[in-house]
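Journal club side-thread
Mid-discussion, someone asked how the predicted structure for our own chain would compare to the paper's figures. Pasting it here so we can look after the session.
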Amino acid sequence: MTRQFFGTDGIRGTANTPPMTAEVALKLGMAAGSQFMRGDHRHRVVIGKDTRLSGYMLEPALTAGFIAMGMDVTILGPLPTPGVAMMTRSLRADLGVMISASHNRFQDNGIKLFGPDGFKLSDEIELAIEERMRDIGDSDLSAPDQLGRALKLEGSRERYIEAVKGTLPKGMTLTGLKIVVDCAHGAGYIVAPKTLWELGAEVIELGTSPNGFNINDRSGSTHPDGLCAAVKEHGADLGIALDGDADRLALADEHGRLIDGDQMLGLLASHWKREGRLGSDTVVATIMSNLGLERFLESQELKLHRTKVGDRYVVEHMRASGHTLGGEQSGHIVMTDFATTGDGLLAGLQVLTAMRERDQPLSALGRVFEPLPQRLKNCRLNGGKPLEQDDVQRCIQAANDRLEGHGRLLVRPSGTEPLIRVMVEADDEALLTDILDEVADTIQRHA
């Protein structure tokens, strides 16, 4: 069945434009509620959101849909995505919902769903919900005496903060550290600086004044220049930048130099191996992670397993194979010993733990490998099917032959736009440029 609503990370789009409308949210609430009505207990769904203006439209529409199906709704208010996943499990809810478009600007919004175990739904369940959205009608609604109720839960932020603090080694504090934290005016704007301060750090706050329009606006993990400048200006020990729903991060060391998700995975993997904490001596990442990470892990006698792009696919592989550390170059870091989804604040605390336990600054720990030069080109489609053309396949094969042992070529259709993405990484930048241009030009001729 072709997907109409769900993409690689829930449903996403421009606010008040299909599919991100109150009508679609209402139908989604009804369909998802119907999907998860199992047994004769009082069913519960928890709903969290980030700070976008359109959250005020989508939250009540979803709530109405769930109530119409007989589900009780617990409204959490602004809370990071990993906090919503945690609360879904903690409250023994049947379903969790996060209203957020992650790192996108305020004009966009999205809806992510979590099962009762706190993990994102599988493709199969999302397709089943889509089918229900098309078919659901008046006959599926609950009787008047079976309608659900809604209540706002106070204290969800505090519960999340205590859970995150509880992942640190017993007795460890951040006393004596100066930390810049940029919350992107998003869902982490209260919990992140409060957590760091309660652990003893001196905290310099950026991006903690949301107004409904400024989420991710020249701030946060996708715009880290302000973070890097603030670290140097204040003489801080490091900087932590979250995205709009706080499920990923970027780090800056004490010199204001950025550290991406691949470097964090390498740092944590090597540190956890030293501590005997890395399950199965394996890290899970996506096909976009730098070849330098793979080579570094091999030097540490560790394995790298790659998945499709998207943190949900990383988590699915981790769960299926029993691995405990995974993530993406973009800063989604997943640690299944502690959480069911990426958690920017939690990942930052684990890096701080490594700094404390090894008594070294982030500059000494945060760049564990030299990344290979990596470049990306997007080929926009105009109705063609270039990947079905023989000369395109011959060009890709020839490029792979030239790169063997010295780099990597990745050609993949975008999951959200009419694009084919071409990524090349290689030890030799001249070879990289030559192959990237040749493959992209060949694809574009058939686009």
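Post-session note: The mean pLDDT is 95.
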